[in-house]
Every structure is written in structure tokens, then in C-alpha cells.
Specification:
18 helices; two-stranded antiparallel sheet; 6 strands; mainly alpha; two-stranded antiparallel ribbon
Length: 488
């Protein structure tokens, strides 16, 4: 193993037989720990031991849902699949509270200042009631308790596309099993969500770190590309697979309905309910009228926007201002810096303009500027949140990219580092570690206020580890060149 070793680690590995098996068992253990943080309602705190991370972020929960779905498929673990579904069901149910926000955002002209008010957009995080947070020091979350300007940092454009994307990935693995409760929400929201994404992709928002609200970010534009592409996949599934399922189920449902309803078993009543939900979704006029060819053209427009305004010197840069410094017109040049969060563009969002050459060049700059010879990257230059430490989840996403691109030793180094340092005697992975941080100061004193320790347990970090272990083990089982460990 690369990285830090202990006698405890070596003993565990010897007992497990080989390193791949050790990683698989560690991944299973961490995945079970993540699942335990998801309540039966589907609510998941971003961190259960840091008070300001008690809310549920759509972003964190969508990535967690995707990791659990992937792990369920790999481990043949139904509990992971069920937890993935619980997250999706809660998020779709919560989306009902913000559907009118989206519709207002679609209708308000871009030149109107109130277009940017959070009440005309989908928020980044929610409370246990599926609504804006607004208590215990988080009053700024709720636009009805504070000024619209102060809550605009919650206007983060990746929430909607990630929810659609996580749902598409779930459906492609499991169909609509266990997300029947979400079908009504999908039916009501999906057409508006598509129009919303088309409207917003050229407008500024907070980035995935909830900063730079005045800029347009390549991460968010690429996330919208992914959301649109995922919406197309869902619509195709509804129009083809789901309709075929209805035909197959029809005779059984007809026989069940022919019986006295009072004498039906609960499982038969559930079948009728599920059939009705599928039927309503397949028969919905708004869903059936979605123009897939038109969506394909919009995807091309979004990809072109990314290519035209964010790629220079063969590198995809992180953001651009809306207007030129002299306010003479639309800014065409990006800010020539990178952000580790851009790795998701290459591993998850995959717009065509992110060619292999662009990916290689951008990752080299991320390695140089943000890894800087360390095992993990900082988020961006001059980050000062908790001094701007190094993030395991971003290192793990880089490991995913390395796995996809034949750089197995580099992926192994990151996965091993996190395994050995954090998971020998624990299931928790921190948000960041304070090693060669980006800054020497922490303006808001986050670190000192948290007993001079970073946030020690982040669900997104742990689900990222689960995802990377699965990808690594899959690569090993396929015998891909560069995996030096014994394959499963």
C-alpha cells in the first residue's frame, strides 16, 4: 500500500487475504456507515457532528445517492439501493415546495433584478421538513426571514441537474423500484426543470462552494449539460421502457381490480398504486410533449457556450465575469484559474467540449496549482475556509479520473492515503485536512471555533470513498493494465 502504514493495517490486510479484498471490505463498511446516516424519511445531514452542516444539501445527497446506487450494483447489496431511493424520494418530495419558484424564474425576464431573488430559484439546501432552513443561526437560509440579497448564496445551479442526473442513473440500474413515490413529483416538475435549466445556464450563480455569486462557472454550466442529458434519458425511459412495463403489468392489475377491494392484500393494493403512478407519468401531456430533438439542440448550445467562453490554451478554466471590467458588454474571456471541483466536469458531466486534450491539460494545471505535490488538493488558490485545507472528496474524484484514464498508480496512491490515514479504526472521513493549506489566515475563525479541528465527519467525503473503491475494484476485476494488486 502507498501512504502511511500501521501494524493494525497490515494485520487486517493479511487476514483479508489480499489488498483488493481489504479495500472492498473497507468500502462496504464505509458504505454501511453512510447508509446509517440516512433516516427512514430520506433526510441526510451533510454532517451529523457539525451544527452548521445539519441541513441536507441537494448536491451532497445526490452524489451520495449515486454512490450508493453504484455500490449496490457492485456489492449486490439491496440496503444500499434502498437508501439511494430514500434520498431521491425525499428530494423529489421537497422539490414540490420549490416548483413555483422555478416557474417564476422561467417567466421573469433576465434583465429584471428580481430574477436573481432566491424565491425565483431552487435552493441549495433544506431542513427536515423539506423547506428552507431558518432557525438556530441559519436565518439567512430563509428569504422570508431575511433580505433576498443575503439568501442569494443559496442560488446554486447544480441542485436541479444533479437531482435529475441521480434519478436517471438510479432508473437505468433499477427501473422505478422503490422510487414510485417520486413519480408524481417527476411528472409535475421535470418539464419545468428542463425549461429552467435552459433559462439559467448563461446567468451567474454561486459556485459549488457557495461563493462568487456574480460569476458564471464552468462547473455549473457543465452540470446543466449533464442535467439536460439526464432528463433526455428519463424521458426516453418513460416513453419506451415504462410504457412497455405498463403493458406487461396490465393483465395482472386487471385481475386484481376485479376482486373486492376490501379483501385485497396490502401487496396487491401497493401494485395498484404503483401501476397508477406509472400510468399517470406515461400519460402526462407535458411529459409526452417534451421535444427530445429540441433538447438535443439545446445540449449543443450549452456545450458551445462552455467551449467558447471557458476553454483557452487547451485548458477549461473555472469561471468568467458576466460583463467586461469597463461594463462595455458581455465578457468573453475566462478568469484563468482552475478549481478542483472542475474534475466533476470530466468524470460525471462529460460535455463534448471537454476533449481528452482539454482534460489532460486542465488536470495537469490542477495537479500543479492545487495538489502542489501533496496527496490531496486544495479547492482553489487563496481558499481561506478553515485555512483552505485539502479535501479528501476532491482527491477521490481525481482518483476516479485517473482510473478512467489509465493512471492507476496515481489513483491508488490517493485511495490508499485516505484508507490508511482515516479508516483503520474509523468509518469517518473529514471534509478537509489542514496540511499545507491555501492560506495562513481564516477570516471567520472557523477553525478556532471548531476546537482547531476541521469538520471531522462529512457524508459526501465518505460516499466519495465508497464510489472510488467500487471503481477501483471494478477496474481490478477487469484486469486493466496498471492495477498491480491481485484482481478479484
Amino acid at each position: 500500500m502507498a501512504g502511511i502504514k500501521t501494524k493494525h493495517d497490515e494485520g487486517q490486510k493479511e487476514a483479508h487475504g489480499n489488498n483488493i479484498e481489504y479495500l472492498k471490505e473497507t468500502g462496504m463498511r464505509v458504505g454501511t456507515y453512510v447508509g446509517a446516516q440516512i433516516s427512514e424519511t430520506g433526510y441526510m445531514k451533510a454532517s451529523h457532528n457539525y451544527s452548521f452542516y445539519i441541513p441536507m444539501w441537494f448536491r451532497d445527497s445526490c452524489f451520495t445517492s449515486m454512490a450508493l446506487a453504484e455500490a449496490s450494483d457492485f456489492y449486490r447489496n439491496e440496503a444500499f439501493q434502498r437508501k439511494s431511493a430514500l434520498l431521491l424520494n425525499f428530494m423529489w418530495k421537497s422539490s414540490e415546495n420549490f416548483l413555483n419558484n422555478i416557474k417564476r424564474g422561467i417567466e421573469i425576464p433576465l434583465e429584471k433584478p428580481n430574477f436573481f431573488d432566491i424565491i425565483n430559484h431552487f435552493p441549495a439546501r433544506i431542513g427536515e421538513d423539506g423547506w428552507y432552513r431558518g432557525r438556530r443561526g441559519m436565518e439567512s437560509d430563509n428569504p422570508f426571514l431575511t433580505s433576498m440579497e443575503h439568501s442569494n448564496w443559496l442560488r446554486q445551479y447544480d441542485s436541479v441537474p444533479l437531482l435529475i442526473g441521480a434519478t436517471a442513473e438510479y432508473i437505468e440500474k433499477f427501473g422505478v423500484k422503490d422510487i414510485d413515490a417520486s413519480l408524481s413529483g417527476i411528472k409535475d416538475a421535470l418539464p419545468a426543470m428542463i425549461d429552467y435549466m435552459v433559462k439559467i445556464y448563461k446567468t451567474p450563480c454561486s459556485n459549488l462552494w457557495e461563493m462568487d455569486t456574480d460569476k458564471i462557472h464552468s462547473y455549473d454550466v457543465a452540470a446543466i449539460y449533464y442535467g439536460m442529458n439526464s432528463a433526455m434519458r428519463i424521458v426516453k425511459y418513460i416513453k419506451e421502457n415504462l410504457k412497455n412495463e405498463l403493458v406487461e403489468d396490465y393483465e395482472e392489475i386487471r385481475k386484481i381490480k376485479s376482486k373486492n377491494y376490501r379483501n385485497l392484500k396490502s401487496e396487491d393494493r401497493d401494485k395498484i398504486k404503483r401501476f397508477a403512478g406509472k400510468d399517470a407519468l406515461c400519460d402526462d401531456e407535458a411529459v409526452n410533449s417534451i421535444d427530445l430533438q429540441g433538447m438535443g439542440r439545446k445540449l449543443e448550445d450549452i456545450d458551445k457556450f462552455l467551449n467558447d467562453y471557458f476553454i483557452r490554451d487547451g485548458i477549461m478554466y473555472k469561471s468568467k465575469n458576466v460583463f467586461k471590467p469597463d461594463k462595455s458588454g458581455f465578457e468573453s474571456e475566462p478568469i484563468k484559474d482552475v478549481d478542483s471541483g472542475q474534475t466533476f466536469i470530466f468524470t460525471k458531466f462529460k460535455p463534448p467540449c471537454a476533449t481528452q486534450a482539454v482534460q489532460e491539460n486542465t488536470m495537469k494545471k490542477i495537479e500543479k496549482d492545487l495538489f502542489s505535490g501533496n496527496e490531496l488538493p486544495i479547492r482553489f488558490k487563496d481558499d481561506s475556509y478553515f485555512l483552505g485545507g485539502r479535501w479528501p472528496l476532491l482527491g477521490l474524484e481525481a482518483a476516479n479520473w485517473y482510473l478512467e484514464n489509465g493512471k492507476k498508480d496515481m489513483a491508488e496512491k490517493i485511495i490508499d492515503y485516505i484508507t490508511d490515514k482515516y479508516l483503520a479504526n474509523s468509518n469517518a472521513i473529514p471534509e478537509q485536512e489542514i496540511i499545507n493549506p491555501a492560506s495562513s489566515h481564516d477570516p471567520a475563525d472557523y477553525l478556532s471555533k471548531n476546537n482547531n479541528s476541521p469538520i471531522s465527519d462529512l457524508a459526501w467525503s465518505e460516499s466519495s470513498y465508497l464510489c472510488s473503491v467500487v471503481k477501483y475494484a471494478q477496474a481490478a476485476s477487469e484486469g486493466i493494465k496498471g492495477i498491480k494488486r491481485e484482481a478479484v
